[in-house]
Amino acid sequence: MKRFAKVMFAVALVLALGTAAFAAPKIGIMTGTVSQGEEEYRAGEEMVAKYGEDRVIHVTYPDKFMDEQETTISQVMAMASDPDLKAIVICQGVPGTAAAIDKVKEVRDDIAFIVGTVHEEPYMMAGKADILYEIDQPARGSSIIEKAKGMGAKTFIHYSFPRHMSYPLLATRRDIMEKTCKELGIEFVFVNAPDPTGEGGVAGAQQFILEDAPRQIEKYGPDTAFFSTNCSMQEPLIKSVVKGKAIYPEQCCPSPFHALPNALGLKVENKGDVPYILNAIEEKVKELEMEGRIATWTAPITMNFIRAGAAYAMGYANGEIKDKADIETAKKLIQSFAGGEPKVVVTPVSHEDAEKATPTATYITVKVPFNGAFLSQTVKVEVKQGDVRIRPFDAEKAQNFLMVVGESIIFGK
Question: What is the pTM of this model?
């Protein structure tokens, strides 16, 4: 049966090639649904609008992707059956992604694969996909706890479930979180939550958070920071944190658009307007008297995985990127998207430093009032994006697996 399916796939491809000689190249994007990952889904829609329905195929993997991996595989195979398709972006890279890539490569080896938010074993995936984008989970193991400490946390609640704790990067992050809590004098509490892909589904997992988070605040007090490894749990968790005046250091997938607007009752007209939503959250946090208690990253990271991935995929499809695994180009793209809105930075410098001008900076001399007189001061004027750090998962064995840390923001502080 499998052999027959492969033969039919090949026949369909050959027949289609006869009519597609002059068609524009396409890319495919697979995301979660609105219920499991709205940001990724909306980013997929955004890429369709940006590049055109004739250039982008957007599909979704099932909500219960653990039980329906064959559906994930068939969705990827369906995209690959289009002879004009040259690259596929998958975010999140849920279980079944590796098998889907293998299936496609059995019949086509010309398609580039870009995967964001990798669920499967990192080294294995680095050998299957061409470019991979992932949040630097090990680095977050310490940075989230350090941020929570700075926000006043005395206890740190970590919600997760066995499936997520079987993912190497998430398990490593959890261990680093516990270690850092111990070093900083914070009590670390792990709470088993229902898996949203399980019997109770998303609704069951969300109801658990709504019931359990208030219990934890009552037990440990408001100086308790909350973190969950699942996207669908973020909105009820934020609502519970606000109600209990607790602490929320950041989401599983940090972004000003991820759950915060809905949880805070904000209307989002355009998910690309970062300055607007950051300002809206800031004002709402002050209204709720939650200054210094809610934080995130300044740029939507998973949406930017898809934006950068789509730009890379389209560049490859158009022949502008020659190598399927052009790591330097992949780095530049995620830097440009994940860096957030450009800012003008003015820094006083010496006259000697001003002579070392760079293409990204302008040096000017200004008059500064001082004790009734004016002093000359040279300043460097630069346009910078947010502080984004990118490193390979393994500089020797997995250079194409890029780990990203974005710029953090604590609202009202």
Answer: 0.78
